[in-house]
Amino acid sequence: MPKFEETIELGNEATGAQTWQNKSLTQHMRTIGRGRLKTLHGYSWQTGALEFLGISVLILYLLPFYLMVVNSLKTRREIFDNTTGLPEVFAWENYLQAMERMGIFDAFANSMIITVGSVALIIVVSALAAWMLVRNQSKTSKVVFYIFVAAMIIPFQAVMLPLVKWMGMLKIDVFNFQMIGTHYGLMFMYLGFGTSMSIFLYHGFIKSIPIEIEEAARIDGCSKWQTFWYIIFPILKPITVTVMVLNAIWIWNDFLLPFLTVGGTINTIPLAMNNFFGAFTKQWELAMAGLILAIIPIMIFYFFMQKHIIKGITQGAVK
Question: Of the candidates 75, 217, 258, 293, which lies 20 to 30 Å from 142 by C-alpha distance?
Fold first, then answer.
């Protein structure tokens, strides 16, 4: 009999445990059911709200490009009658007229020379300066670096008039050397305005490079110049691409500095765009076509290089 009673007790315990498990499973299913009431097939309203916000922001960003493209293919009257709609007849001749009015090939060549030359100077000077500022651990190096960082917040409009005046004084008539109205003069000015941010980016990246690499190069007989060009500069490729892209975009699109220094003698693409806006007439259909032609090269360049921008900045963010 005792064994029989023990068997009954064990059976009751097993039944109680199973009952508890069934209750727990029922409560869990009810919880899942309540959660599913707030979703649609597991798709939460928070996710939907974020997707809606992202699509809305994307539309806002794409809207100016849409307006440029559709209005570049309309007549002037149609632009004012139906700004946001598609053109009734595609006026492809707007692009041919815009290219002729802009002098697109001369303007493109001038912009390429100025942009490539300026970016190359900024990269070489900024990389060398940042390397020396990092490796020379002195108070003077820190002060110079802080001066470059402080120069980033000075707007161009605050110094443009003194700049044009001083650059106009830097000329040698005997050698026909002058800073105003020349390619190299404009490149030199871009060098001054572009080095602050570039040195700041290079400085953070170089701090993450172990100094033991340079010490090993010196032991092998490399000079400082060889150490930089053969050891350090190849390591700087990610941040160099970032510096190149950021500077190329603003130099290519810059209007004010070329207008003040080379306007009337050298025609860049932003200056050529000014031909469509007169004192009494504004040729919007040609201006839209000109804008499309102006942004195509720099957009292609950016799309090929964009993956390196975040990579270069993040690699130099942590020492």
Answer: 217
